[in-house]
Amino acid sequence: MADVRKLIDKHARDVHQRIRRGVKPSMTLPVRSLSNVRYRPAEGYLKITGKKKVRTLTVNTVKTFAQTLRMLAMSKELIATGRHSTKREAYYQAYNWGAAAFGSQEESATVMDDIEAMLAVNREQIHFRADEHGGEVAGELIVIDRDRRTRRRIEIDCTRFGSGAYSVPTVVEELSFRTKAKFILAVETKGMFERLQEEGFTHTHHCILVSMGGVPSRACRRFIRRLADEKALPVYVFTDGDPYGYFNIYRTLKVGSGNAAHLNEYFCVPQAKFLGVTPQDIIDYELPTHPLKEVDIKRARDAIKNDPFIRHYKAWQKAVEQMLSMGQRVEQQALAKHGLGFVAETYLPEKLRSRAFLP
Amino acid sequence: MADVRKLIDKHARDVHQRIRRGVKPSMTLPVRSLSNVRYRPAEGYLKITGKKKVRTLTVNTVKTFAQTLRMLAMSKELIATGRHSTKREAYYQAYNWGAAAFGSQEESATVMDDIEAMLAVNREQIHFRADEHGGEVAGELIVIDRDRRTRRRIEIDCTRFGSGAYSVPTVVEELSFRTKAKFILAVETKGMFERLQEEGFTHTHHCILVSMGGVPSRACRRFIRRLADEKALPVYVFTDGDPYGYFNIYRTLKVGSGNAAHLNEYFCVPQAKFLGVTPQDIIDYELPTHPLKEVDIKRARDAIKNDPFIRHYKAWQKAVEQMLSMGQRVEQQALAKHGLGFVAETYLPEKLRSRAFLP
User: Fold this and answer.
1) Out of B156, B161, B169, whose CB is closest to A194?
2) Which of A91, A210, B17, B64 has minimal Cβ neighbours within 10 Å of its Cβ?
3) Shortest CA distance from B174: residue in chain A
4) Model-level pTM?
C-alpha cells in the first residue's frame, strides 16, 4: 500500500510550487463513468481506462479547488491522529471552512470521490469510511485486530459466537487472519446464514460463512477479498436465482460496478465463483419458483446486451437466457421444500462436489 | 415463559374434541389493528385491548383453518428438534401440504401472525424467526450463549472485538448476560457506533453500545429489553433530530408500533429515555441543520394529533412543536462541526450529567 501521507504531500507540493512559480495550478483526475471502463479477466475487475480530465484553477473552479486541498489536509490529519471520519462527519467538519464550506452533502461526496480517483487509493486509505454494515462472519477463522485503546493484539475466534456472529467493521485494512478453513461461502441473506449455522455447516465442511445482507457493502467486499488473497481461499457465492442475485450481488462482489470503477481494483473478489441458485437447479432439484417480474426481464436483457462481464462469459449468457426462457426466478429458501436440513445436507455438498460453478 | 408445546397441544385438543363431539371447531383471535390499541405508561407499551374475532370452521374458512393447524404442528416439530424456521422457509415447507399449501408468502405470514396472537406468544417462542439483522454490540458486556453443536456454554466478551462488534442473532431468548456497565446507549447509525468506539466511549463511561442500524429490528429491541430487564440497566437513545428518529426509531423501540400491537409486550423497551438530538440541542450547541421536508412536517403534525404515545407526554408535544416552529431537522453527525471528538468528550457527557432526557 502506498504511503498515503507522502502522496498527499506530493500533490500539495505540486500545487504550491506552481503557485510560487506564478503558474496556474491544476489537478489531473481520471474520468469516472461506464464509458471509461473495460473488463479483462486477467485483471479481474471492471477497470478504469485512460481518459483523464484536468482541473485548472480558475474563477469557476476556485471553490472546488480549495475544498479538495482542505479535504486533503483533513485526511492527513486523520491519518496522523489514527481516526476515521464518515462522509457526513467530513461534511460537518467543513462547516468551519468559511467560503469553502460545502453547499450540500453531495458536494462533499464528489470531492471525496475525486480525491480517491486522483490519488488512486480507496477511501479507507485516506481515513474516510462508509456508514454501512460490513457483513457478518462465522466459522473456522481467527481475526487478528488491535484493542482500540491499548493497541494490544486481539484474537477474535469466529467459532465462538454461539448463535451470534462477528460483525465486520467498515475499515478492514489493518486486520489479519489465521485459518485452516477450506473455502469461504458468501450467502445473500441473514436467514440463510442462520440456517447454515443451525445445521453446523461451517464445522462439517471446514469453511468460513459470510452473510452479505443483500448487495455487499464495500467493507464486506474488501474483507472477503483480503481474506481470500492472504489465505489463498476459494470463494463461493450463494444467492437467490434472479437478476438481483446474479448482477447486483454476485457481479458486484466479483468484478465491481460501473459507477465506482476507480474503486473496483480494491473491492472486487476475482476468485469468486457462483454456486447457485442457477436456473438449471430449478429443474434438477424440482424447486418452487415465482414468475419473473417485468423489471427482472428488462434487467436480464440489458445485461446480455451491455454488461461487459456477462458478455465475456458464454456460461453466464446461457444461464441468463435459460432464466428468461423459463420466465421464472427462485429464492434460496425454496430448498426448504425438501426439509430445513436439505440445503446443508444435500444441495451445497452436491454443488461443491460437482464443481459446476458459474464463472 | 409459557410452555409453548403444552399451549399448542391444548389448542389442538380443543379442536379435536369438538370434532369428536360433532360440534364445529373454532379459534378465537384478538383483532390486530390500531383501533384496538391503548397506551398506559404503567403497562409501558401500546397494548392490544379486548376486541376478539372467532373463526369457526366453514366452507369459507376450511383452508385457513387447515393451514393454522398444520403450522401449529410445524412449530411443535421445530421446538422438538431445536430448529428455527424463517417465514420464507415455512412457506416453502408448506409446498407439500397438498390442498392446504399457501397461495402466497403473504398468506403464510398472516397465518403466522394469527398463531402468535392466538397463543399470545412471540414468533421466536414458536421457533419462527425474522430474516433481518439484529444490531451490533460493543462495550462492557459478556453475552452467555451455547455452542450450536456441543451445547457447551460460551462466553462472548464484547470488549474484545477490536474495531469489529458482536452481531446479535435473530433469536435472543436463550441468551444471558454478565455486566458491570452503568447503562446501555443505543445509537441510530453504524457511523456513530464506530465514532464512539474510536473515541473509547464505552471504556471511559462504562457502558454498552448498541447500533440499531435505523429502525431497530425485533431481535435488536428484544435484545435491549432482555438485557435492560435482567441487569436493571437504564437505556438511553441517541438518534438524528427528525421525525424518523423520534417516531420510527425511538417510539418503536420504547413502546412498539400500531400494526404489530400483539407483539409490543415482548419487543418494547419501556425503560428507554431519549437523549438527543433534540430541537433544543440545535440552539444550545449551535448545530448545522437541514430544512424539514414536506413529509417530515406531515408526519410530525400527524403524531401530535394521533400518536397515543406523543399525546401522552407534554414534553414530547413541546419538542415536536419546537421542531415544527424552527422548521429544521438535525443529524447526529452535525456535532462533528465542533471536531470529531466533541460528541464523546462534551455532548454525551453533558447530556448524561444534566439528565434532561425526553420520556
Assistant:
1) B169
2) B17
3) A163
4) 0.88
